[in-house]
Specification:
Helices cover 44% and strands 5% of the residues. The protein is mainly alpha-helical.
Length: 389
């Protein structure tokens, strides 16, 4: 008897960018916006991409931090997706510096509950505990792949999917729509941050698999010309946004984010399978879910609301301080004022990564104090503001 495949109760339509962004993108593509105005407009589009990439990180991390060791494999899956979103942010910020537009990390910081207005209609994002419903209804929707539709004519005010948005930017770069876009990229390379992610091992192909599935050598995050810009933006797309429906693996050999999240629902990773329809099946490493292995959080918990529990509030404030330091370090890292400051900017980026790696421990301290006080609490992700010089 054939194994029954569970049906998804959710249908997925790729998120679409808002009309203003679609019109600005079209304006560059058709030379309605040109020269310096086109470069500045492209910078604004990339700033919106920063906002898009950043918004998912705390959303995913909140869910991951709520998982106990009983759900370790799912925790690792969600955590790696969040790290990859941080790498997407790095690629976009480096591209902005390559075209002479300073990335504003602080302006991209979300405040939860958060209406992500980069997309249309705006997408409501909350910080909450992990649940299968959250994965199916939100996470898979955020990362929904697209089967590209080719229209007979351009409709100026029609929204574009996120995949088409990135494809439009890639096309502007590939076609040299903006002359001399990268003329200062090499001399301004000191403004960019390189990163070599140290991913954990993952039981992907089967339960004995222990590879780390690292990034390809050509993804080094340094963007100094047209080719490197296209290469890195294409990598961002292949990890989730705009992925072709029957080519579900990214360049590292793992499923794109949408299919990775669906693997949680299917309880196995999606892997290549020559005997299966379309050449893939959810028959890889196990992803068991224990519903008892989740710490229940208050949705969008704020530190100020826990004054009756000073130990809990203290740990939440500690978390917010670390998160604020991480954001400010990223702002410093991507806004390097001179080659002489490059070492400090590199150190600031590494500090941001170190803080991100430490956030699980800081979140666990909140959980432990909340359990002692028999309350839920949660991880707040509240940004306190720029560092005082």
């Amino acid at each position: 008897m054939a194994k029954r495949v569970p049906r998804m109760s959710q249908t997925y339509t790729p998120l679409t960018i808002n009309r203003r962004l679609a019109l600005d993108l079209h304006g560059i593509q058709t030379a309605l916006i040109r020269d310096e105005a086109a470069r500045e407009t492209l910078g604004a589009l990339l700033q919106s991409a920063l906002q898009l990439e950043f918004a998912t990180i705390p959303t995913y991390l909140s869910a991951a931090f709520s998982l106990t060791d009983a759900n370790r494999r799912i925790y690792e899956l969600v955590l790696r997706v969040a790290i990859e979103e941080m790498l997407h942010l790095t690629a976009v910020a480096n591209l902005m510096n390559a075209i002479g537009i300073a990335p504003n990390i602080i302006a991209a910081v979300p405040k939860y509950p958060y209406d992500l207005t980069v997309v249309e209609p705006p997408l409501k994002l909350n910080l909450c505990s992990f649940s299968v419903n959250l994965v199916e209804k939100l996470f898979m929707a955020i990362e929904a792949p697209e089967a590209r539709v080719v229209y007979a004519a351009v409709v100026k005010d029609r929204p574009k999917t996120i995949g088409q948005f990135y494809a439009g930017i890639i096309g502007i770069i590939a076609n040299d729509t903006i002359p001399d876009l990268f003329k200062n990229a090499s001399q301004d390379a000191y403004k960019q941050r390189a990163v070599e992610p140290n991913f954990r091992r993952i039981a992907y192909i089967d339960n004995q698999d222990n590879k780390t599935y690292p990034l390809k050598p050509e993804i080094d995050f340094k963007i100094t010309d047209k080719a490197s810009a296209i290469r890195h933006l294409s990598w961002v797309v292949h990890e989730g946004e705009g992925e072709a429906p029957y080519n579900p693996l990214d360049t590292e050999g793992l499923p794109g984010h949408h299919y990775r999240f669906e693997s949680i629902l299917r309880k196995h990773y999606l892997v290549r399978n020559a005997k299966a329809p379309l050449g893939y099946s959810f028959s890889g490493g196990d992803l068991p879910f224990d519903s008892a292995g989740v710490h229940e959080f208050d949705v969008n918990a704020k530190a100020k609301d826990y004054g009756a529990y000073p130990q809990v509030q203290r740990q939440m404030n500690n978390f917010n301080n670390d998160y604020t330091d991480m954001v400010n370090s990223l702002q410093q890292a991507f806004n390097c004022s001179s080659p002489e400051q490059a070492g400090q900017a590199e150190a600031a980026y590494n500090q941001a990564l170190d803080i991100m790696r430490s956030l699980p421990n800081t979140a666990n301290a909140i959980i432990q104090r909340a359990q002692v006080n028999r309350i839920k609490a949660g991880v707040p992700f509240e940004y306190a503001g720029p560092a005082i010089a």
